[in-house]
Amino acid sequence: MTSRIEHHSMSRWPAARIHAALVDEACLRERLDTLGGAAARLVSHTVTGDEVRFQIRQQLPEQDLPGVIRGVLGGSPVVDRSETWRRREEGHFVGEVAATLGGVPSTVTGSLWLRDLTPGEEVDTDTAAGDRPWASEFVFHGEVSVRLPFLSDRAEELLAVQVRRVIAQERKFLADWLSRTGG
Fold first, then answer.
1. pTM to 2 decimals?
2. What is the DSSP letter of 147?
3. Rounded to an integer, what distance in angstroms lies between the CA atom of residue 176 and that of residue 153?
């Protein structure tokens, strides 16, 4: 069985600027230094034409984990994650993400979508199109699978919560980074 993860957010920066930051080695390293824990590192980073692939390793803070997961892991778990991003067309980027949690037979997979909003485009918010401060949207559709006897459903729900927390922390870091670097 799997648990679905959906995330949708808007940004005042254009998709190209966000994409550039998401795949920038300096930004990745700073994000890992800030959020990644003691095991954090950029494992690999490859640019080929309009495609960027990178692998990272980071730790989930033990205090953020529910007791049942801490008991199984016995410490702060290490996450190995890979992302691939491609430019689909001007102002539109797509990607895939895959991650595993050390010590737990688990996977997190998903698709990524980053695109500019067109002027006057209807979006699912409470703000009128003419009043909105957003230039782009980011969407993540994913799923978590955990294969632990008798704990799979609960462990998947708990891991999905952690994935949502990581996404929120990384979105905040990225907004701060873009503001500081003249994004």
1. 0.85
2. -
3. 35
